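PROTOCOL LOG
Step 1. Enter all chains and additional molecules of the complex.
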Amino acid sequence: MTATALPRWLRTPFIARIGVIVILLCLWEIAARWLIDPMFLSPPSRVFTSLQTVFETRGVPAALRVTFWELGIAFVLSVAIGLAIGLAVGLAPFARKSFMPIILLLYGTPQITILPLFILYFGIGPASKIAFGISHGFFPIIVTVVAGVQNIKPILLTSARSMGASRWQILRYVVFPHMIPSFFAGMRLAMTGVLLGVLLAELYVSTAGIGYFTTLFTQTFDPTRLLGLIAVLAAMAIALNEIVRRAELHFGRWHAE
Amino acid sequence: MRRADKEGQLATRAVQVTFLLALIGLWYLAATRWHVSPLLLPNPVPVWDDFWDILRTGEFLGDLRVTLTELAAAFAISASCGVITGYFISRSQYRIRVLEPLFAGIYSIPIILFLPLYILFFGLGPASKIALGATISFFPIALNTIAGFGYVDRVFVVAARSMGASDYQMFRYVLLPAALPIILTGMRIGFTVALLSIIGSEAIASLAGLGHRIVHLAEAMEMTRMFAYIAFVVAIAAILNTLVSSLERRAGRVR
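Step 2. Run joint prediction.
Step 3. Record the structure below.
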């Protein structure tokens, strides 16, 4: 263990983690500068210093904006559709028993096989990306909403009903508060799914989106801008994931108190 | 009580079967009566015929071999690297605390983003699919291996030590049985995501494979055949996933 030789503050996990990242970046820098053909890989220093050339490429800012909107709309619609179906299926025991196996079966099939159909039905514009993103995003919401509804103690529903609560009041004061933690866990999974779906569809076919530019930079052997674009997209994905994860932590704790 | 249960089960089965039949019926009606263009929705009967034709003539064999070879190679790489890396990290609490959040963070990025880069490095052939599948499935396997070996109940470890277990005995009789079910779950998840990402990257850019075949048929506007191939790939994926799940259960039981 070399770590024992280091001073104590250097050994805190956070600093060490940053150290690992820095070492990896250094290895990448060395490999790109001296070992690998610059046609295929460019060093991180050049990628980061020339990030603005990515944004200066005509069409890239618009493409990033389009992708961001696709992600946002797909996520919101997945949550809305998933919540509606999840509540409809989860609140009626008979519907749950009949339809959950079908939903789980559909959730388990690889949607990537029907990607060409989405392009066919929704065109090569943003609509097909949004639809494909939704197809990945709404299943986790349904599954977690149903699980959340299922976990409500029947006695709470019965007592609310016996005290004369209306259907809406039961939903508002009994079902929703109990669903919140699993619902937010589902939102995190949905965000992962939407990111995957939208980016897959973008990479598959795209006229003005991100997929067009990744193909362009790949075919013109421009690894500097390709890596820059990937880095920007990865940062976007991390930011979106982090927002949903924070929300999950926040609301999950609120319930536990 | 039991009788009511049985009747309830029968009713749910009936609803499921009716639902699926209704879907197929709607599909048939839409294709034959309601003038939905066959380019959007081909008639289910020829699709069914094509499906059997594909199975009978065995024309799927070439593409299936390509996809399965890629899958096997990717999974072999990610399973061995993932388990070895995970075991190495799990041997010290310090390494777990430094590296586990890093791996979990990378795992949350959609790694499919790196596909263009992989194609640049490894070309359009199977190598780029193997590399991508291996990268994507590495993380769940490594993370689950860390979780499996890293969080074995200390009571067991201390008890085995105090009874004088050697390093090998400790690994074979304490750590491995405790960690195996979690590692196997990681491998199942890794296998599923590897399959998905390989079919996906074949659809996006490739020369052969099942994903490539579907896209090729879509571009040729041979919708009937494409629907048949979609059904075929979905069936293959379902068979593979069931197989892996049952292997996971069986291997998890053997101690």
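Step 4. Note key features.
The radius of gyration of chain A is 23 Å.
Chain A has a mean pLDDT of 81.
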